[in-house]
Amino acid sequence: MDQASPQAVLLEKLAANPLSRTGGIALYWQCSELLKRLIEESHYPAAVPLPAENELAKALGVSRPTLRQAMARLASDGIIHSQRGVGAFALRSGLVRPVGLSSLYRDLADAGQVPTTKVLVLEQVNAEPTVAAELHIPVGTPLLHIERVRFADGTPVVVTRSLLALPDGVTLTREQLESDGLYNLLRRVASIELVGGSQTVSARHATAAEAELLDLPSDSAVMVAHRVTFDSRGNGIEYVHIIYPGGTELSSDLRGTSTHAAEVEARR
């Protein structure tokens, strides 16, 4: 059985908690309090858009103007963040805000460098529990496992290990992955637009294999970014670990825009 999306679960819980029409408490206030409680209790993913206004209003049994008052209060209290053209997102302490996403492939090209890619692994696997939980998909869901090395002007700058939850019938070829950026391929091949994600970055020593791939001395330090990204419908699409060599500078656009502003730039 398919696992319900965070949006569907939230709507179901809202409908199961009817508002009081007596007692003198304004409906918009009740809406905002209920939404706040359910967002916090369910640990609603920061990168997944909340349901649309009309869906929220229907589930709550209120008018859209009343719903907008509630959303305005939540925004003022720092519970949600509105992203023009995409929707509203839940904000929670310690989580990355929705960010504009772009691929390293295009960032390098825009910087005047020549990006090339070598695909090391391209295979179908099934989602393990940890991955399934982060992508909000059922355990065992078919995923496309990709491991790549990206080069800039012939110098290795990053190793990526990705797991992609693609629509039925959609796949990517080695030739496609070695000639274009992943996010552009997702838009072009699968009509998938990634609008947000959460990311953590840590440092550790490179494994022997990573040091060889990145042309580093053994036991060199590397930075590892773990990212999970979602599309505009709230579907978990990408679970990835990105390994950068020491000396790499990471910069993130945290303005919550779905434009193609660069999220990551790698320099050596």
Automatic annotation (TrEMBL):
- Answer whether the UniProt record assigns the keyword Transcription regulation to this protein: yes
Q: Which GO terms describe its biological process?
A: negative regulation of DNA-templated transcription
Q: Which GO terms describe its molecular function?
A: DNA binding; DNA-binding transcription factor activity
Pinpoint the HTH gntR-type domain residues: 25-93
InterPro entries in alphabetical order? Bact_HTH_transcr_reg (IPR050679), Chorismate_lyase_/UTRA_dom_sf (IPR028978), Tscrpt_reg_HTH_GntR (IPR000524), UTRA (IPR011663), WH-like_DNA-bd_sf (IPR036388), WH_DNA-bd_sf (IPR036390)
SMART domains, A to Z: HTH_GNTR, UTRA
| Annotated keywords | DNA-binding, Transcription, Transcription regulation
Tell me where on the tree of life, at the top rank, the source sits. Bacteria
The protein depicted here goes by the name GntR family transcriptional regulator
Please tell me the species this chain comes from: Amnibacterium flavum
